[in-house]
Amino acid sequence: MKRSVMMIMVLVTLIAGPRAVHAQNKLDKLMTETTAEERAEMQTRNMTEKLSLRDDQKPTVQEINLRYARKMQSVYNAGGGKLQRFRKMKGVSEEKDGELKKVLDASQYAAYEKNKEEMKSAIKEKAKEKRDNQ
Fold first, then answer.
1. 113 alpha-carbon distance from chain centroid
2. Is pTM, for the whole model, over 0.85?
3. Of 80, 72, 111, 86, which Cα lies nearest the Cα of 22?
4. I need a surface site. Which of 55, 57, 110, 120 has the fewest CB within 10 A?
5. How far apart are alpha carbons 74 and 56 in whole angstroms?
6. CA distances (Å), 118 to each of 19, 66, 107, 112, 114, in order?
7. Domain map of the chain by residue range?
8. Whole-angstrom distance between the N-terminal and C-terminal Cα of the chain?
9. Alpha carbon distances (Å) from 124 to 21, 116, 121, 128
10. Tens digits of residue pLDDT in 75-127
């Protein structure tokens, strides 16, 4: 469960925009303490549960998640400034979304997008609370 929460955080961090920079420490921890394979497996389990993936979709979604987890790891390992790295990771995330859209049916993709937006809103709210408390 803890890893699923961390995986969700990395997904939100990748799509939430510059306001999510505060989540960088969690991203650093996730990227250094888990392998691309572990992250892909966590993503696939989460998506299976949240999107009710069919048995025929699971292997394709797993392959997409693994490929993009490896791409994310490469971007992360390449270093550079946090903002530069974030922008590259966001681009990778957008590519992945395009591939997932081809695999998921319309209602699944809508639920996927809704989940991303909810996570993004939660991150923004936490960032706002953190700024207000400083």
1. 12
2. no
3. 86
4. 55
5. 29
6. 15, 23, 16, 10, 6
7. 2-132
8. 30
9. 10, 12, 5, 6
10. 999 988 889 988 999 999 999 999 999 999 999 999 999 999 998 898 888 88
